[in-house]
């Protein structure tokens, strides 16, 4: 609140014009939960099973065979090449509209494996309040995520109040086609850009064209975004969520394979990043429930 007052008070030496009040937020582990596995990965696995009758060859072809044998944990801890192969097979060759329908249908029926909640209810109530607070002060809020840009765009506006054009994420290549006489955009089974780690500042530059003055994340994958945001002159704010409430949510940091928080946590003090201690700082975790 002190930071916002500085940058929104006319005449202040730290005043920032509304056009430059850019706030960026990681998604997984920052706006919604990410344990025990990234939610889009669960979508990917369900999609493989759904498509498998049309691809009998997958029964003998890795990494698809591992998924169909019911060993998803092996895939989720696999190398990036295997995960990309699954993503391209499940996300590619669909029109943009077809992909949106697939994601919407999955979000309607899918449930978190531990809480039983719909994934769009696994969002963080304090972060929803923060987004609303910043927008009331004429900030423009963006998602900058390692997750798929088209996946997040399906639910971001309804869930967070962030429209599709303010989502930056990992993306497939795409092309324009005429199908049955109708112009469409087709998602190709080829990776175009990974929006994680050093990719996040690059993605912000490509999509937004302004350096943010506010950045929030929860893992080392957000380090470069936080560093780039807060290293320029003027008032800047960097925020890290530390997941340490195993009773109401999850507890993980330095040794986690999902959302690892190590270097960013170590450097937070010298970088002047605010660390939010979920266990002691948050009265409520999820909008519908405060306990697993």
From TrEMBL:
<dbReference type="GO" id="GO:0016787">
    <property type="term" value="F:hydrolase activity"/>
</dbReference>
<dbReference type="InterPro" id="IPR023214">
    <property type="entry name" value="HAD_sf"/>
</dbReference>
<keyword id="KW-0378">Hydrolase</keyword>
<dbReference type="Pfam" id="PF12710">
    <property type="entry name" value="HAD"/>
</dbReference>
<protein>
    <submittedName>
        <fullName>Haloacid dehalogenase-like hydrolase</fullName>
    </submittedName>
</protein>
<dbReference type="InterPro" id="IPR036412">
    <property type="entry name" value="HAD-like_sf"/>
</dbReference>
